[in-house]
Amino acid sequence: MLKQLCVILVLIFLGLSIAPAGSPVQISYVYSDSMEPTIHTNDGFFVTSSNSIEAGDIVTFWAPQRDSYVTHRVVGQSDSGYITKGDNNPTSDQSTGYSHVKQNEIVGEVVTYHGAPILIPKYGSTVSALRGYSPVILLGLGLLLLIRMGGTATQGARPTRSVLRIQDVMLPLLVVSVVSLVGFMLVGASVHQFTFVAVATTSDTPNIITVGESKTTTMMINRSTTPFTRSVVTAENMQITEQSRNESSITVTTRIPPPESTGRYVSRLSTRHYPAVLPLSLLQQLDRIHPVIPASISTLLVMTPVYLLSLLIFDRKTPVRPSRSRWLYRLKEVVK
User: Fold this and answer.
1) What is the per-residue pLDDT for 327?
2) Distance separating alpha carbons of residues 20 and 133, to the nearest angstrom
3) Which residues contact 160 (CB under 8 A, 6 or more apart)?
């Protein structure tokens, strides 16, 4: 009974960890020191939906100008929306140029006990790794399940008909896993779009560019911190001249080529995350050819050892599932 309860609690915890924005209850974390000492970097916390936000509440909200979720404290309210501030920041978000937070941008309120948030220390580092390798983890759990079910099937079961064996599913499972991982990497790329307006006269406005003149601009891309992935940034309609990285962001300096005529120009920065099995420089070179290439190579480097290890561990002739009579026997034992 205790074992079953532990499994249920783990499943609930994992479910809250991967719950999308808008779920009634979630677990999230901060990746900066803006809320210290209340919430330290990578500390996890519970977020619950709330329609009654007051000054003093800590909320998680979507910040369009940062293109990310932010967890800060509400310190006031105006006709334009809520005023927010990190406990460790000297001024409010709005006084530094960010827009007021609207009610529909608020994901939820951080759960507190006697005014202090309920925290999970260093949760962020763990969940980043789990999310980065969730398909691999699911595959490992599936293989362990095959071992358990296959072992049960060999104890006294006498198959009288053709059954599906582990050797029949291992290679298809590898192929499906590789294809799924590659798909996740390509579809999961984050794209940041920047719009510039070309005019005939010189202007110092950030999103204005003069016809016939190039423009250099610096942009910061937030990223999740995990030692198991490497991020590759690529540019469209602009040229990356310099990159610098820290634990939570990538700062990119770009050069926008001189426009030939007035009008609206759109440039994009794309960030793809690959398993950290190849050097970053090699991933960048392969990504320039086509993103499918580094995604496929890095995925195969991760999954091939798993496949080879499974060949050594499993009896490939073991049935994938036990006979129906064995399941009926188990059901009767549970009922008793």
Assistant:
1) 47
2) 17
3) none
Question: How, if at all, do strands 208-210 and 190-199 pair?
Answer: parallel
Total-model pTM: 0.46
Q: Quick one: three-class SS letters along the chain?
A: CHHHHHHHHHHHHHHHHCCCCCCCEEEEECCCCCCCCCCCCCCEEEEECCCCCCCCCEEEEEECCCCEEEEEEEEEEECCEEEEECCCCCCCCHHHCCCCECHHHEEEEECEECCEECEECCHHHHHHHHHHCHHHHHHHHHHHHHHHHHHHHCCCCCCCCCCCEHHHHHHHHHHHHHHHHHHHHHHCCEEEEEEEEEECCCCCCCCEEECCCCEEEEEEEECCCCCCEEEEEEEECCEEEEEEECCCEEEEEEEECCCCCCEEEEEEEEEEEEECCCCHHHHHHHHHHCCHHHHHHHHHHHHHHHHHHHHHHCCCCCECCCCHHHHHHHHHHHHC
Q: Which two tokens stand for residue 239?
A: 């040229």
Question: Which two tokens mark 191?
Answer: 């794209």
Angle between helices 134-153 and 123-132 (to 10 degrees): 70
Give residue 258's Cα distance to chain centre.
36
Cα separation, 239 vs 128, whole angstroms: 30
Query: How does pLDDT run across 116-136, given as a tens digit for each residue?
Result: 899 988 887 776 666 556 556
Q: Which two tokens stand for residue 151?
A: 């072992």
Q: Which pLDDT score, from 0 to 100, does residue 12 have?
A: 59
